[in-house]
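Protocol step 4 of 6: structure prediction from sequence.
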Amino acid sequence: MYSGAPGRIVAVPGAPEVSVVIPTLNRWALLRAALERVLTQEAVDLEVVVVDDGSTDETPRRLAEMAESRLVVHRHERPHGVAQARNAGMRLAGGEWLAFLDDDDLWSPRKLRLQLDAAEKAGATMAYGASLVLDEHYRPMGIDPPPPAEGLLQDLLRHNSIPGGCSNVIAKRRLVQDSGGFDESLRQVADWDLWIRLAEGGPAAKVEEVVVAYLDHPSGMHVKEAHVAPAELAYLQNKHSDLIEAHDAQMGGGAWFYCWVAAGQHRAGHRIAAARTYLRGARRYRSRGALARAGIGLVSGRLVQRDTLDPLRPADGLPPWAQLPQ
């Protein structure tokens, strides 16, 4: 079904359990793989809302050709940005729960069922799990574990501890709507900002299993737009200043945020900018690790490893659902 203008569909008896919102722009090959994993979710009633944010490739035609009653497509004639696209999809959603998926990530077959069951057991209004990190060749880099549900808000006020970008969390639709959805002035940390507000609004549940495969690749937004991240962190610190003070938190996780930004700059080919960002983190937090990475990246040009606050756990191979057809 196509929608020409955003609106609101109120959940009614017979509405799906989950509405999955997928923003996309000119990445049909990736979107197709993501859709395959969503439409084959096990033991869950769902609808899929794809927001085509102004694609000029084959995406509009391919979506129109899909004979799938659970699919709702909303198109922007020109790009509005990923946060606006997600909000547009949210306004069209009719499910009790909302789930967001980026078009370059993949879900395990029981992702939604595991999270729904965990949320029901815990009486939670949001749920998340572990993430498998893949490089641009779909090779496993490791597993990013989920943070404890207890104390999640405190954790989020330090750093974006929920792995998998925007492709992991499910939350009650009413909670997301009442929180205001995604802050459309943000690009890099819009998910982090929303997770803080959701964690403040209700209890969370975690799933230990890997539920999402997160593609860490050079054309990803966190790489291409790494330069905006420091300013967005400052915005986030100001926006949540009362919460940060109340919980005596240090938003940014010390030098971690600067290392994460610099790694993205380096992968985008901006070695000097990356070195400067590492040095800023090293000076501000007296981090020898950030200082060493600045030197390695600038002198040798070697790709600096992906930075997480906690090391990735080794991945035991690649599950079938995270493999792309040859």
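Step 5 (inspection) to follow. The chain has a mean pLDDT of 86.
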